[in-house]
Amino acid sequence: MDYTRFDIFRDISNSEVEAMILCFRMRRARFAPGATIRVYGGSRDVGVVVRGAAELVRFDSAGTRTILERMETGSIFGELLAFTAELGDSLEVIAAGECEVLFMDYAHITKRCEKACRHHSLLVENLFRLMAEQARRLSRRVEVLSQRSIRDKLLCYFRILGLESGTETLTLPFSLSTLADYISTDRSAMMRELKKMRQDGVVAIDGRRVSLLGQEDRKLGKRQGIPDNFGN
């Protein structure tokens, strides 16, 4: 495997990563779609998604499911790097499809290296940089959830995706069913609001592709009959 393509191993060679895998006793594990990768509560390891994608999911005491974060290939997760569960809540990392994870013990990462290895120091630097990026993503997540209405939540999330992609036509990273969990709202209510937004000329939707329409774009979209296929 080419580990150099993962940000956690930036500027570290494959041979150096292989040496750390042995030194740190890292382990790789595969997970089927929907499988629970980690349940938070006492675990002190860090996971790197090396294939597929996963989701950090919160279940409250009533069993309500809320997606806190989507983790694509190369993303990291760990109890020390994420939210702390409230009383009665459960935090789980769940495979969003066929998924493979490389686990490393947090204590091995942070302990003083007897050999003062350069790649060990780089790993720690990369970890803290990724933690800062993760904090920024989570602050955007809070911004979405802080919106009062379903429409405002959707527009806020779409605009964030647009800023990240540099375009007003974006592709959702997950299905509309999952989107409802992500913005913490009822799926049927969200679908009704999306339909209203299409009718108001605010967005055009084709499967998972969403276009934010400006005033002229709205008129053009209606004239050209831009499809609004609400796919899963």
TrEMBL record:
GO terms for biological process: regulation of DNA-templated transcription. Coiled coil: none annotated. The keyword Iron does not apply. Residues 8-105 form the Cyclic nucleotide-binding domain. Pfam families: cNMP_binding (PF00027), HTH_Crp_2 (PF13545). InterPro entries: cNMP-bd_dom (IPR000595), cNMP-bd_dom_sf (IPR018490), HTH_CRP (IPR012318), RmlC-like_jellyroll (IPR014710), WH_DNA-bd_sf (IPR036390). The keyword DNA-binding applies. It comes from the Bacteria. CDD domains: CAP_ED (cd00038). GO terms for molecular function: DNA binding. Keywords: DNA-binding, Transcription, Transcription regulation. This is Crp/Fnr family transcriptional regulator.
